[in-house]
Write a structure and sequence with these properties.
By secondary structure, this protein is an alpha/beta fold. The chain has 9 helices and 7 strands.
Length: about 260
């Protein structure tokens, strides 16, 4: 299937590793030029080289910096000649007990996982509407659908973004101009973040990291962790010309783990 994205430009945030990288790979495979961001320059450049090898016909630009800062956002936007596709992504806040979190902890979580994507959307959505094409995909979390008690910072910040997107995506001046805004809600994927959390659990319990990861993989009905390539393929479809009638949706990708009907 031709996704109709040849020659488009995408800004993909936090794309040096994990799910962001999976999205960038899928878009590059469809002929999309990309600007990828991340804090770590070395990992970012390694990913850029991989993407260029995947499809030498596209342009791949890198912006090392903090996308949650105004300066980082400005640099990323300046590197992208025209943002046809925006993939919002930022690392989630740490787990813990809400009794231990300060106001600064909450502000940091909301800034990274709610306000940063909103600021980027604000910068690009009207231009998308004027040109008659735009795709915005926000990588949030399965915890939006089924909150996890120790991820209260993430539950709160990402749920706030979800409510905002529900309203914005349905504005006629957005939706009628072929601009879609959707959220991808990952369950447990085989990423560095999952393994770092497993390492933290390992220190507390004495179990090995591999045992902890294997136990998590055994929970979903799919009996495995997700992988970044299949996540990226879903993102690329939502960005395609074939998904123009899909907007304001929260797509849960969790191997069947969520038990509800809706």
């Amino acid at each position: 299937m031709d996704f109709g994205l040849q020659g488009r430009w995408a800004l993909v945030c936090a794309a040096s590793k994990g799910l962001g990288k999976g999205c960038a790979k899928a878009l590059v495979g469809e002929g999309v030029n990309v600007v990828i961001t991340a804090r770590g320059a070395a990992a970012l450049e390694a990913t850029a080289a991989e993407l260029r090898a995947l499809n030498p016909a596209v342009q791949v630009r890198t912006v090392a910096g903090d996308i949650t800062s105004a300066e980082g956002r400005a640099a990323a936007l300046a590197a992208c000649p025209q943002v046809d596709i925006l993939v919002n992504n930022a690392g989630g806040p740490p787990p813990g007990d809400f009794r231990d979190w300060t106001r600064d902890d909450w502000i940091k979580a909301v800034d990274a996982n709610m306000l940063t994507p909103i600021e980027l959307i604000k910068a690009v959505v009207d231009g998308m509407a004027e040109r008659g094409f735009g795709r915005i995909v926000n990588i949030t979390s399965g915890a939006v659908k089924a909150p996890i008690d120790v991820l209260g910072l993430s539950n709160g910040a990402r749920s706030g973004l979800t409510g905002f997107i529900a309203g914005l995506s349905r504005q006629v001046r957005v939706a009628s101009r072929n601009v879609t805004i959707n959220n991808l809600l990952p369950g447990v994927f085989d990423t560095d973040r999952v393994r770092s959390m497993a390492a933290a659990t390992s220190k507390k319990t004495g179990q090995s990291v591999d045992e902890i990861v294997a136990a998590r993989a055994a929970v979903p009905p799919a009996r495995r962790l997700g992988n970044s390539d299949e996540f990226g393929a879903t993102c690329a479809f939502l960005c395609s010309v074939h998904a123009g009638y899909i907007t304001g949706q929260n797509m849960l990708i969790d191997g069947g783990n969520y038990p509800g009907t809706f």
